[in-house]
Amino acid sequence: MDVAAREPQAKCGLEWRVTVPEGASVTVEHDAGVAARAWAWLVSCVVAIRVAVAGFARKVWKIGADDPRRAVHGLKVGLALTLVSVVYYTRPVYDGVGGNAMWAVMTVVVVFEYTVGGCMYKGFNRAVATVSAGLIALGVNWVADKSGDKLEPFILSGSLFLLAAAATFSRFIPTVKARFDYGVTIFILTFSLVAVSGYRVDQLLDLAQQRMSTIGIGIVICLAVCVLIWPVWAGQELHLLTVRNMEKLAGAVEACVEDYFAAGSAKPAAAASSKSEGYKCVLNSKASEDSQANLARWEPPHGRFAFRHPYAQYAKVGAAMRHCAYCVESLSSCARAEAQAPEHAKRLLGDVCTRLGARCARVLVEASASVAAMTDPKTVDFAVADMNTAVHELQGDLRALPPVLLALEPAAEMSLMDAMPLFTVASLLIEISARIEGVVDAVETLASLANFKQVEDGDDKKGQTTETKVHPLNVQDDDASAQENQTMKHAEQEHCNTTVK
Amino acid sequence: MDVAAREPQAKCGLEWRVTVPEGASVTVEHDAGVAARAWAWLVSCVVAIRVAVAGFARKVWKIGADDPRRAVHGLKVGLALTLVSVVYYTRPVYDGVGGNAMWAVMTVVVVFEYTVGGCMYKGFNRAVATVSAGLIALGVNWVADKSGDKLEPFILSGSLFLLAAAATFSRFIPTVKARFDYGVTIFILTFSLVAVSGYRVDQLLDLAQQRMSTIGIGIVICLAVCVLIWPVWAGQELHLLTVRNMEKLAGAVEACVEDYFAAGSAKPAAAASSKSEGYKCVLNSKASEDSQANLARWEPPHGRFAFRHPYAQYAKVGAAMRHCAYCVESLSSCARAEAQAPEHAKRLLGDVCTRLGARCARVLVEASASVAAMTDPKTVDFAVADMNTAVHELQGDLRALPPVLLALEPAAEMSLMDAMPLFTVASLLIEISARIEGVVDAVETLASLANFKQVEDGDDKKGQTTETKVHPLNVQDDDASAQENQTMKHAEQEHCNTTVK
């Protein structure tokens, strides 16, 4: 991209118009010497900075445009903070930042999270940890108070040391880490503040009561803004991520098989190739699935997600999909390999393999539609049966292949060995179909745990279409990331999960 | 396991000794009726609770015993907190928890992290964010002060809203998220506290100066305790994780091939099988590699890790290893498949495949030794050459296989088709060896970026041995996790990375 940089002080009579490629510096050959060269250097610097800023601005704009909920999240945090500051600003007895108002502000800043689940998790942890640590600290202070001036500092410091050490260590316990990590921090913080405060117990009771109420106000404002204004539910994000990944996996299986059998005739089109990379998103979404499943458990019932929705099972569906994606990765590397089976051998299995690929994809698409619409995955069974028929056909064709190849060419052994990559592709496909059954099993478990509703024939399709229309943002997002998803390295940077914080 | 529960009130004359299996409730058939049954229920409850507590205690003990540095971390946090509280407790002018002492305590609680890198990251972010937000807030307060009483609240609230929204949104930018996430939180927090404080600018300057010094004291105490007492370096953890994963991958490649060719003769031993699962740790360590590489960049030079050590390249080595592990996963599923090639066909390729597997493993072991000892991976090239020779041998044997099989049996076509799983294993092995070359390339890039030292022949082995002895903890840890690592589900729960917080 070329940039036309117009020198700003044009009115001095000197007018420059330099057209430079992005990032390049302008080299002006001139007799005027040092001054002119310095000037040219300055101009090139200004241009480079402008280009960098424009590039950065474009990136930032894209982040917001890909998912406007992010920009809305920023505004929500601003709103919650302004609300809490206004509440304290307009109170008749305003006691400044040194007082308790700051606890409300602090609560809003640290508790407000992108998803409702995150907000609930932090709010709950903060409230419970503050109360329990406050009570324990009061008890310790009372004991220290009774035991005389000499022992007091030792009791206080000793209990602080022991409790902080034990609480910190408890964060290495996986359950604590997953559910109460933030609470442990707040527990240590509150206990230290109260224990070393030097106040007497009756003063502390007053202080505690005030602080609880301010923290309560902060949490209430946070939750209200988070839930009432365009809420982002971790459970729904997890649900959509699972559906999206299943669709991507379906696309990847089909595209990889097509790529392989098209590779000889012509290089695969860029569009098909980007579709066949979809499995990489599945490979890289473990971390976001786990964190969302963790946060989703804190969320109240909302929409189609009832109380105690089996979010953990989504993580298992994700594990089954990854198990499948490992195989798809091997398949995709076969399509990209240099040593390819001869065309005539490929043609013999092309149809049956492509059919199996398409049917594998159909099973996954049906399963994802059933998850998306939260309907019983009844029709998936038919698709699985079709897929297994295709597997048997492929196995039959494979069995029939050697005689055919032997008949086609005199140097039959050579021909058989050249066809080896084809055998590999076929057996990977068979393995993939077995793993897809694993995904279907996980989906069926999910359906029974979450009481997915039974549908009459015909209703099913309708539910699906509605579902897709409800979340246009995520579909866009999805396409955008699929477009970029060109190299392994990109996928490793996990940009597939653009909606995941 | 049986537990002998002795009823505590034995002195009442009633002595019970109930032996129950873990978690089971005791059912006592008795004529005495409700009271006796209630009593039995109570006893069974006590027993169940005791068993649960004992089980939990054993788990917690294991977490600490697996890596004593975790327990030490707890003690370090306790020590840092006690130190900071003592500093403020013994100061002549002690102003209580409402004053500035709390900022030092708060800093220690939130800044102290398991790794030095984490501590530096949080300390740096906290310091810079506090200073910058404080300065901006002072400026805004000054402007608001000058613009009259009516405009003041609007300027303050408006700037709070805009800055909080912009800062929150900036967390979605990947670079900001990775390096300054905590800083953004502190920026918003400090700005809100100062902006809505209602103090005049000259009061604020005093307050700011005091607060900076307390936060500074907190950060200094944190870093001192973190670095001086048994420090845990994120860079070293990343380094060891990479070495360990490479060794596990080597073991898995070799064990999978052996399992496959041993599967017919006898079921593979449990020990071999657990070794062949090592690739799962590689598959699941992306998240910890990324986070450690992120934290390691904040660490000062230490030991063999110089300033600007190329930690990002470790993540690339990890990506190459994962790329390889996907294929090993497919290979391992071949060994576990029901449809196996006939024994006589397996025997024909058994030797050459096992040799290739062993040489693949050797390449990885040499590469990991070179990374571990931080020496130039010169000897790896020989191992790669050996591996490639084995690949050529395998390809030659494969080419010779059809005539041999044709000669062995009359129904040659059938025999060839039955041998298909064998072809799949062979081509997967060839693909694995190609991907191992990718790992070696990544290791060589790492070696050149990190200026790994050149070694004379013979020195190399010595360096290796020393290295292994330096970190007995991690080796133990490793073995322990390999033992448990039985199922896919376990590996999915990422317990392989037990040393990773």
UniProtKB/TrEMBL annotation, chains A, B:
The protein's name: Aluminum-activated malate transporter
Predominant cellular place of this UniProt entry's protein: membrane
Localisation per UniProt entry: Membrane
Membrane topology type: Multi-pass membrane protein
Family: Belongs to the aromatic acid exporter (TC 2.A.85) family.
BP GO annotations: malate transport; monoatomic ion transmembrane transport
Region (Disordered): 457-501
Entry GO terms, CC: membrane
InterPro entries: ALMT
Ranges that cross the membrane: 38-61, 73-91, 97-116, 123-142, 154-173, 180-201, 213-234
Species for this entry: Leersia perrieri
Source organism superkingdom: Eukaryota
